Amino acid sequence: MRLGLDVTPLLRPRTGIGVFTAMLVRHAEQAGTEVAGLVSPFRRGRLPGGNAVRSAPCWVPGPLAGLCFDYLGWPTVETFLGPLDAYLATNFILPPCRDAVGAAYLHDLGPLVMPQHYRARQRARFERRIRSCCRSARVLMTPTRAVADELIDLGLAPRERIVVVPPGCPQPPLEGPRSPPSGRYLLSVANFERRKNLPFLVRAFARAARSLSHELLLVGAGPCRDEILGAAAQAGVRNRVRLVGQVAPEQLRGLYAGADLMLTASGYEGFGLPVLEAMALSCPVLASDIPAHREVADGAARLAPGNDEEAFAHALLELMRDADARDDLARRGTERCADFSWKATVRGVRSAIEQAQART
Questions:
Q1: Phi, then psi, of 200 in degrees rounded to 5
Q2: Which of 44-48, 62-66, 246-250, 312-316 is the least confident region?
């Protein structure tokens, strides 16, 4: 199979979509799939570790992509990459396909499910892209049943055109520094955007901080940085909340390995990659009680309401006072990770494409 992919996410700061794309390319090629990458703008992507992605530039300017792809049906993806068996949109942009099976991996439907967390222009742009993928793709893949159900409930696609293909378990680098920061700390890994609910997390931490000696380390970056710092200052914990910024994978490994607990209070996720990353490194998890977290953790994380600061702080304190409970979560998390493999993800992608081919 010759598979085209949008590999542009590899060129940007680390996100869940970037991790997914990098690992899919790597494991698809290991499984014998020839991968051709489409890049926009004019740059050449590189996989972690220095492996070059065979890629070609998409020369359609971003502002004109909707007009060209959706209304003119031109240029086709084969114009850029040559003959393909299938093309998978990894980042909500699906060019027209002449002969290839057009497929889209919809990581989440945030702008449609929780529009209040997006700026108007950002919401309109992503809603347009999501709806375009749903109209054009012959098969839609989602990371969880939760996102598949959202597609159906919103009337965007019938169930028979949707296939759930979970990503594999993150594979931390085997080499590189693992030393965590000195002192005890709690960890959160998330983009600093509204739906991640980080000001809430800071306020919940502040409620528990009176009984803890820990710092709260926030890994990530984004537009809500000042709001997060403001919440910490207002709650009186500014000196115990540290914004670490974006970190390299080997540094992230050390942070997970040294944390007493990984926290996420996100209001919406399509999957929630940090939950799986933490469990892979035996770091116990306290997460907001949302459909994706329930599905991914499947009992291997403690869940608490993401809209009740007192309840979330209570769950945090309970775990920090019970080392056996944290050890049990770490053990169950490691076991749960065995259910996620990149080989299974690649098989799932190929199977979904083959099913779509068989329907024509």
A1: -60, -45
A2: 44-48
Radius of gyration of the chain (CA): 21
87 Cβ contact partners less than 8 Å away, ≥ 6 residues apart: 3, 4, 5, 38, 77, 81, 94, 95, 97, 100, 101, 102, 103
- Fold matches, 2-167+341-358 and 185-337: yes
pTM > 0.85: yes
Q: pLDDT tens, 119-145? A: 999 999 999 999 999 999 999 999 999
**153: Cα separation from own chain's centroid:** 22
For the domain with range 185-337, which CATH number is right: 3.30.365.10, 2.60.40.1510, 3.40.50.2000, 3.40.50.2300? 3.40.50.2000
Q: What is the pLDDT of residues 231-280, one digit of tens each?
A: 999 999 999 999 999 998 889 999 999 999 999 999 999 999 999 999 99
Residue in 217, 177, 179, 172 with CA at minimum distance from that of residue 198: 217
Contacts of 49 (CB under 8 A, 6+ apart): none
CA 65 – CA 11 distance, rounded (Å):
19
Kindly list the domain boundaries of the chain, sorted by start residue. Answer: 2-167+341-358, 185-337
Strands 2-6 and 34-39: parallel
